[in-house]
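Below is how a single chain appears once it has passed through the pipeline. First comes the sequence as given, then the structure the pipeline wrote out for it. We keep one example in the README because the format questions we get most often are answered faster by looking than by reading.
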Amino acid sequence: MNVLILTPGRTASSLLQRLITISMLQNNYDKRIVNIHDLLYGLDENLKFLSDPDHQNFSQSLNDIIKILENNDCYKVGRIAFKGFQKRNDAETEREKLYDYINDNFYIIRSLRNNILEFALSWIIVKYTKKRNMYSVSERDEIFSLLRQKKIKVEKEELTSLFDLYQDYIQWSDKNFNIQSEYVYNNSIKSLEPFVQSLPFTSDKSWEELFGISFENWNECHNGLSNENLDLYKRVHDLISSYVQQNILPSHLSIKLNHKLLLIENFSDCLMWYNNWLSNSHSKVYM
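Resulting structure:
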């Protein structure tokens, strides 16, 4: 089973696809499973990611990407990020071929946010920090400390353009893909495990059944919030690291930057602009 996640960004899609891959690996499928991260950022002939998962490489044509995917007889887990897709200059005929190929060969999950304001602010924080994902507690804490000292002042035009981008993403994904499942990110990782477990191609066992530690407890350890079951945490951490070394995963599981609203200087203005935008929006919007 090939799996594709559609995302406007900032919906935990990187973490979601890693968890789907890890869960699928426990089912002992008859083919190898590879998490290729993003289909459009560059792949070599063996599906190895050509650049760091936090950077973008749009040098390959869509036709070349389709050929690489076709030539690799394995189960693939990845995503298409709408924000990155917009930056490409592909011909519409090539885009149509990609849509057809994805619809014919992938189980498609659309990731959403239940709060579009937090989605937009998360993108603005990425712009200021230059970090899409973080992989150590020290890195996260350093960024949080710096932004607490000098908070971000958000501009109205930048914020509302991100609201529009989210709305465009909904329309684009509705129009071009046969969506089979939806994951709504609510700014908490607690919803990730039950969603992954509910999919028809992943293991129906929980992390605790598979690894002896719940995903919530493991993630608390990973984020430096708990010292409980550290031996089990390290055992699973090492297992995931081995998947990275084997090129099954492009990176380890990321660490989340929490309490993001505390980093915004003019949050009350942002809330007002969001409510005004929402009242003037007549298209389909998920919240």
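DSSP finds twelve helices and five strands in the chain.

See the next section for the split statistics.
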